[in-house]
Amino acid sequence: MAAASSSPSIMWFRRDLRAGHLTIREGDPVTRLVEVAEEISARTVHVAADFGPYGARRDTAVEKALAERGIELRRLGSPYAVAPGRIIKADGTPYHVFTPFSRAWLEHGWRAPVDSPRGATWLSLESSPLPEIDLPEGLSLPRAGEVAALERWRQFLSDRLAGYDEARDLPGVHGTSGMSVHLKWGEVHPRTLLADLASVGSKDAASYRTELAWREFYADVLWHRPQSAREYLRPELARMEYDEPGTAFTAWQQGRTGYPIVDAGMRQLRAIGWMHNRVRMIVASFLVKDMHIEWQHGARHFMHWLVDGDLASNQHGWQWVAGSGTDAAPCLHEPHTDPAGPPPGYPAPMLDHAAERREALARLERTKR
């Protein structure tokens, strides 16, 4: 097991914080926020608005506790170019389909990135140290922090934005930006990326902008329907027959299914905490439609391992594969059909893909009766 303190990601993060302007307090956020605010005699507490189900509840509880002491909580901005809830249809209802949402999102537009604050006065408060966390053996994390995020973004703009529209769909090439982890942890704001893309004006830049719109669409869906983080967007699909996770589910988690594209993706997840989006759809489809295991089991596994595990994007990506949206139809290659046989020691397929596809369709039909 590798200690987090020796992780390059944590080392870079510590370096970026060398000025010491970070206070860590452990415990209930309501108690700790009130505690710190009273220590420094604050009259106002500023936070970035959180639109997730838990974050929204937490901030409401903090707001109430602060107000009881005469302290105001102000929510400023959000992790999105356009905050969830702002893009609505003419009749005042939210969008349920991406394409019209994305058109409205583009038409709405967004503010330019703000400049870094100047002349701030920092206070020294008692702080707990950064926690020391043991990482799973073999797991390698990316560099953390704003400096790392902006360096990666500049490299993508110069080296890989040209051709992105096609390369982004190819798992075998380094065609994506890798910015999802930095967006997830707030190390860079989407308005910063959008401002740079606006100066390019190419098909590739438009394609990347569309990917950012997907992130904002899923956040909007979750904001309007917070229960969709755990429940089906189309409730009738909850009535479908599903199998309980067991040894087969463990084999899927470990990348031992006998289907190389599935196994490669699941092993990559364990190695670097990331997986190409197309491969995410393939492994998810394999679990739900071939193994007949409910999407929530896979979604939890992803959220546990993904360094860019965004609740809205992850859960609704799984919902899409499960049939709450349109169905995916990934292609899984089959080394056991090769006359030379699979590589030595590679596991035999744990199931017959064609047979399980028929079974999945049969189960779907039974939900309609």
Q: Describe the global form.
A: globular
Quote the distance from N terminus to C terminus. Answer: 52 Å
Strand content: under 5%
Alpha plus pi helix count: 15
The H/E string reads EHHEHEHEHHHHHHHHHHH
CATH fold category name of the largest domain = Serine Threonine Protein Phosphatase 5, Tetratricopeptide repeat
Strand tally? 4
Gyration radius (Cα, Å) is 23 Å
* Average residue-wise pLDDT: 88
Q: Level of helix content?
A: 40-55%
Tell me the quaternary state: single chain
What key phrases describe this protein's structure?
369 residues, mainly alpha, Serine Threonine Protein Phosphatase 5, Tetratricopeptide repeat, DNA Cyclobutane Dipyrimidine Photolyase, subunit A, domain 3, 2 domains, two-stranded antiparallel sheet, two-stranded parallel ribbon, 4 strands, globular, disordered N terminus
